[in-house]
Amino acid sequence: MTTAPRERGWTAVRAGAWAIAVALPLAFLLAFFAYPVAAILARGVVTDGHLDLGGFAEVLADPRTWRVVGHTLGQAALGTGLAVGLAIPGAYVLYRCTFPGRALVRGLVAVPFVLPSVVVGVAFRSLLAAGGPLGALGWDRSLVAVVAALVFFNYGLVVRVVGSVWERLDPRAEQAARTLGASPARAFATVTLPALAPAIASAAALVFLFCATAFAVVLVLGGQRYATVEVEIWLQTTQFLDLRTAAVLSVLQLVIVAATLVASGRLRTRRERSLALVEARRATAPLRLGARACAVDRVAVGVTALTVAALALPLGSMLVRSLRQDGRWTLEHYVALGSTGDRALTVTAWDAAAISLRTATDATVLALAVGVVLALVLSRRPRRRTGRRALGALDAAVMLPLGVSAVTVGFGFLIALDRPPLDLRSSLVLIPIAQAMVSIPLVVRTVLPVLRAIDPRLRQAAAMLGAGPGRVLWTVELPMALRSIGLAAGFAFAVSLGEFGATSFLARPDRPTLPVVIYRLLGRPGEGNYGMALAASVLLAVVVALVMTTAERLRPPHAGEW
Fold this sequence. Notes:
By secondary structure, the protein is mainly alpha-helical. The chain has 22 helices and 6 strands.
């Protein structure tokens, strides 16, 4: 007699818990993402309380606008094409083959994706500027430098997305083609490449998105000459104080981002379906590279070795130049981090580093709190079609902060969060919130595949043994997802530590983060300031690399592409 009421009680408790789990993260996203972005949209189309599209007409009639849009799309297309073309051989060598030191090379290739963009800009400047190892090529402040840096950032992402599928492909289809007389190249083109196409297309869409919204790299390496929409928004806001033009440009960027996210979402769905198919099969052991490797394997190894060496070159140049002054080896640039430079800073670089660590810690806690709850919600499998559609819409909404630029988010914070009940422009929590918004999609994409891979029969067995929903969560789901949560924490911390786009708008002069300090040092003349920028960049790169290599050890078998 008491079983039915108890069951109804558990059903009500479960429904209420999931309602809260959906409502709280959505409220956070609405308050600190949707509202600021909507404020930007309103600033572009509303004047004195009335709809006014004159700003669009003025901005769209300006030839500079289309030049900036052309730079954005052109640089993104070049960066995407080169990153994908170079990464396919790398995915084969690092995920389909085995050799001594493969795990170490995988980890090194993954580091550039989470390196602070300011650090990458400084690294390429140290390589290409006058006096650098490649300074004679004249590529400083050029399109070549910008595109090379974009490839540097995104090569590891493509390798991971494509490689995670490639290592699970059933090799028997390609072996059958070879048995029927196809050459290795033809077997790859006709059998393997079509199977990899969803993963390659998904990776290309993501890389295009990241290239189109790149900020600090373009600002440091290209300047106003090769300004993208992202850089132009920053210039119009901080230098020209033209908020209306910046708002219109933000709307244009949102259109580009929305189109790319739609394409990326569809391609990711196709990739996940193909991955589900190949995971159902038992893949053979990885191929061993050796002296008897075929010509295709030797080409893939050669391309991968040259690419990995090229990835290490900018960072190596930055490290060497940070230790050199007046033709001699010295640690003076690192010692100078304890000072404010040649009147370039208001605080020391060490103080800024401490601020960065505290801010990144706060941002990571926020990102995990919101992202893990969202991942738990998205991992459910509703029986009704309406429920599945609602989760699909929520999944797409969660990805939006990843596509919308950090500059747009920071700009939106400035113009929206200046009145009660969200008057936060003078609050110290604003920067951690902005950095958490950038990290939340990464947390979700890291934890969600692991939660979806949990056999639902485990939950059912725990429930049949009398465990309530909360106990199932604590004893079944979270323990199995713990490694992925640790990996997500590493990603969130590394990304927050190096975030520059939103922070450049929001950081107070007396509380800058280390990326902001590096950019200020680069903007000041003098060899001492430049040497300090190099030393601070090395420091930041080392911390991020240590965080990521530690987090990579926690990567579970079913982790996402991040």
